[in-house]
């Protein structure tokens, strides 16, 4: 009987169950092994940053996912994203639901172990096949043991950034991290009429905070638990095409710092603090600054992108997150 069960599992997850992982304890080992990963392989080094908020960065171009805790890279894995016709959407997502024993409601009750939902229409992180190329129906497949470990350190409302395009190598100048769709919109005219910003924290009183700044729109949007609670005009240099991601960390001495997450093209910045001179280049209305500052908590994420975030710009309208609060696990 046991052999039959094992054989069945190999049929369901042939590449996943044979995937090889390594647990290491130093940044040097993590970097060395991460650079050599083959399809199905992963490396995990949680001791490098044992505490702090977790952010996941999925690079569709490289078919890799990187896990950061307190702004420090602690794990890297190979993935398999959506195949042609079922492409994985790019964007900044929140973990809406977690279910270790989930089964698909769309694809013949297929097992989706350690599922972490990103959208309510079926996109999630979960254990699945890893053939070395995009082959899912839109989800991000992870090695089984890696997905189990990741499931153990994430929380509802955690931030997941999905960027790139399968089959198209990403360069340092790549933009457009946000997903093409409609969003809760506030035009530049509305912002001008309200003193330059809109602030409605009552729409989502609690939960993780994400701030997205668009160089194209010269605007920013604030989301808490995936719900838009604020929007403002911004002054920020337009002529820098790079995408940057930062997270707010809490140090042992009680101080807080904005730390870069090393997105493709800027891996060397991972874990470094935001320079005060760079921060000074971003200007927002004083009332908005005061409101946001009082709401910041460790784990808050800032994404700076060329992509548009609403009406009144030359760019594309985008959805930044599913505007639905996170839920406890349920069976679809």
TrEMBL record:
Keyword Cell wall biogenesis/degradation: yes
Family matches, as InterPro entries: LD-transpeptidase, LD_TPept_cat_dom, Transpep_catalytic_dom, UCP029342
Associated pathway: Cell wall biogenesis; peptidoglycan biosynthesis
Keywords: Cell shape, Cell wall biogenesis/degradation, Peptidoglycan synthesis, Signal, Transferase
Catalytic residue list: 126, 139
GO CC terms: extracellular region
One GO process term, biological-process aspect: peptidoglycan-protein cross-linking
Coiled-coil stretches: none
Signal peptide extent: 1-19
Domain L,D-TPase catalytic: 54-163
Any Pfam family matching the protein: YkuD
One GO MF term attached to the UniProt entry: peptidoglycan L,D-transpeptidase activity
Keyword Signal: yes
Annotated family: Belongs to the YkuD family.
Name used for this protein in its record: L,D-transpeptidase
The organism of origin for this protein: Sphingomonas cavernae
């Amino acid at each position: 009987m046991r052999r039959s069960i094992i054989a069945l599992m190999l049929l369901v997850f042939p590449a996943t169950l044979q995937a090889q992982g390594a647990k290491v304890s130093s940044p040097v080992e993590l970097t060395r092994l991460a650079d050599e990963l083959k399809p199905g392989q992963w490396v995990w080094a949680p001791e490098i940053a044992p505490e702090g908020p977790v952010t996941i960065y999925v690079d569709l171009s490289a078919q890799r996912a990187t896990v950061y805790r307190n702004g420090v890279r602690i794990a890297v894995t190979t993935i398999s994203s959506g195949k042609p016709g079922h492409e994985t959407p790019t964007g900044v997502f929140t973990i809406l639901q977690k279910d270790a024993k989930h089964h698909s409601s769309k694809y013949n009750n297929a097992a989706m172990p350690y599922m972490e939902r990103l959208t309510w229409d079926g996109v999630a992180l979960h254990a699945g096949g890893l053939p070395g190329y995009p082959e899912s129906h839109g989800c991000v497949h992870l090695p089984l043991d890696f997905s189990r470990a990741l499931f153990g350190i994430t929380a509802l409302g955690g931030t997941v950034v999905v960027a790139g395009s399968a089959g198209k190598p990403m360069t340092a100048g790549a933009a457009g991290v946000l997903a093409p769709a409609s969003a809760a919109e506030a035009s530049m005219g509305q912002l001008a009429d309200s003193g330059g910003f809109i602030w409605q924290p009552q729409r989502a009183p609690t939960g993780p905070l994400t701030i997205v700044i668009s160089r194209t729109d010269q605007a920013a949007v604030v989301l808490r638990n995936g719900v838009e609670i604020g929007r403002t005009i911004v002054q920020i240099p337009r002529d820098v095409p790079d995408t940057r991601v930062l997270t707010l960390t809490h140090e042992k001495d009680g101080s807080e710092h904005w730390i870069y997450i090393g997105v493709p093209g800027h891996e060397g910045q991972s874990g470094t603090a935001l320079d005060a001179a760079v921060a000074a280049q971003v200007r927002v209305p004083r009332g908005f600054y005061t409101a946001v500052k009082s709401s910041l908590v460790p784990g808050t994420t800032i994404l700076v992108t060329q992509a548009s975030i609403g009406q009144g710009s030359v760019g594309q309208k985008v959805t930044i997150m599913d505007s639905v609060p996170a839920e406890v696990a349920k069976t679809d």
